[in-house]
Design brief:
Chains A, B: InterPro entries: 6-PGluconate_DH-like_C_sf (IPR008927), NAD(P)-bd_dom_sf (IPR036291), PDH_C (IPR046825), PDH_N (IPR046826), Preph/Arog_dehydrog (IPR050812), Prephen_DH (IPR003099). Chains A, B: Belongs to the prephenate/arogenate dehydrogenase family. Chains A, B: Its EC number is 1.3.1.12. 2 copies of one chain form a homodimer. With 305 residues, chain A is an alpha/beta fold. Chain A has 2 domains: 172 residues, NAD(P)-binding Rossmann-like Domain (Rossmann fold); 89 residues, 6-phosphogluconate dehydrogenase C-terminal like domain (6-phosphogluconate dehydrogenase C-terminal fold). The first copy, chain A, is 50% helix and 12% strand. The first copy, chain A, has 12 helices and 9 strands. In chain A, α4 packs parallel to α5, α7 crosses α9 and α7 crosses α11. The longest helix of chain A is centred in the middle third of the chain and has 28 residues.
Chain lengths: 305, 305
């Protein structure tokens, strides 16, 4: 089969980009993979592990002549990178990204995209708590959603080509507008991350419970929070700074509900608590049925009888 | 080897009790396992799957003549069960439990324990989001902590025997006093559960994001919350009602910190966010190093390259 894109440039070589590189190799759907990372150490690692066909010394060098350029840097850095590569973009090329926030990326990158170049923002909903060029693996996107967020005037053929590309990497695709994307992600990802970070910080601060106790006894629920709270700090800083409105809205609702449950605990209102906890069970069932998680107990940590 | 306990009675046949039953069979460390559950359906299931040597029709029937009686019912039901079995307890027997809260259990059960019977409360820190007699598996306690909380005047030999029993089931053991236990668990388990329940409830309530969207896009962080929030509603209702003080204290600290982060988002204070997120990473490393979780990305959901 002929490649979906002849030359693909990955700008930023962290967890998502390195997984894309391995997934492209597995799919055999691109001609050449070019990569660039700001840190010399990351570029060196990428060369060592054979992550890309060519590791370049600048974003512009990687992007030049590419048919698809994917910005895989923290959301706050996207605008700068777009400005840098704009002059070398090939007419007819597609610029995309993998940022967790879409409105801010569109505002930051959009103005730099030259006429004749397609801009198709995207967001693969996949990740782990690990980061860096060694953390990627080809299966990361398998059966996960990649959301495409076409902008005003996006070329339909360019969008469809990018959808095909993501499906070849194992993902499912869906289109969404930027505002809705940012709200959905505030619910399913951004606010949960902030809450997990907070809870881990509280545990770390509490003088009467030692860190070693927190670590030892984490299996009781806390360790799932620590995994989330081990995610890349710069990436997440940028997510909250750039999806401020939606995150603050969901946080407001969260504290409202938390206060209602706190009040039920204080008043000893067992019926309220039990009703609430019963309702939340159904959502879990939905997620397992939708194939978005395993029903093996404890994520398969404990074998089934 | 001679059995650690000749006859063991499990009162309540949910996830923990059924895992104990399989773990005892694996260890071969008890003579006979007797079980009782309040629901006829659960007793029937237990018989079908061969969970116990004898499934009894009342708690007293199961406890009579047992060398170890383990209360595996929700914390709020412990006192009633203790009252029921008190008259039939064998002199020299040990009564223990697996409740997630210790002060309230000691207050509820202690007064019913006859002179000459040892009362050694315990709490195995292990579980999954599943419940009921079919959810147990022998490996649940392997390399997990079981906390023993001896009460005033506990017999040292009885405590040591129960420690040996738990180690034979695969667990590590540690002793702790009840107040400290309840505080540690409020941090590592109870508050994280309440927060997860709340976040899942918020997602379910939000009209502009559909449940199906929440389910579809859950892989971005939310699904770890849904697993926690799928835990047994009655058990968790009782935990919050009986560990009220410590939970409310930790919740207070949590909302304080959350408001500080919320303010940093509102003010665009990226340095504050990045510092906070960097600090929480270290705790995760400690947990993986302590063998309390796997460092396989995404709990082993995604294979490592």
């Amino acid at each position: 089969m002929s490649p979906t894109y002849d030359k693909v440039a990955l700008i930023g070589l962290g967890l998502i980009a390195s997984s894309m590189a391995w997934a492209m190799k597995r799919a055999g759907n691109v001609g050449e993979i070019r990569g660039y990372a700001r840190s010399e150490e990351t570029r060196q690692t990428a060369r060592e592990i054979g992550l890309c066909d060519v590791v370049c010394e600048s974003a512009a060098e990687a992007a030049e002549g590419a048919d698809l350029v994917v910005l895989c840097v923290p959301v706050g850095a996207m605008g700068l990178v777009a400005e840098e590569i704009a002059p070398v973009l090939k007419p007819g090329a597609t610029v995309s990204d993998v940022g967790s926030v879409k409105k801010a990326v569109i505002e930051a990158v959009g103005p730099f995209v030259p006429k004749g170049v397609h801009f198709v923002p995207a967001h693969p909903l996949a990740g782990t708590e690990q980061s860096g060029p060694r953390s990627g693996f080809a299966e990361l996107f398998d059966n996960r959603w990649s959301l495409l967020v076409p902008v005003e005037g996006s070329d339909e053929a360019a969008v469809e080509r990018l959808e095909a590309f993501w499906r070849e990497l194992g993902a499912l695709t869906e289109r969404m507008d930027a505002d809705h994307h940012d709200l959905v992600l505030a619910v399913t990802s951004h606010t949960p991350h902030l809450i997990a970070y907070t809870m881990v910080g509280v545990a770390d601060d509490l003088r009467r419970v030692t860190d070693s106790e927190v670590v030892k006894y984490s299996a009781a629920g806390f360790r799932d929070f620590t995994r989330i709270a081990a995610s890349d700090p710069v990436m997440w800083r940028d997510v909250f700074l750039t999806n401020k409105e939606a995150t603050l809205e969901i946080l407001g609702r969260f504290t409202e509900e938390l206060f209602a449950l706190q009040r039920a605990i204080r008043l000893g209102d067992g019926a309220h608590l039990q009703d609430y906890f019963t309702r939340t069970r159904a959502i879990r069932r939905g997620i397992v049925e939708a194939g978005q998680d395993t029903d093996a107990p404890d994520f398969g940590r404990g074998p089934k009888r």
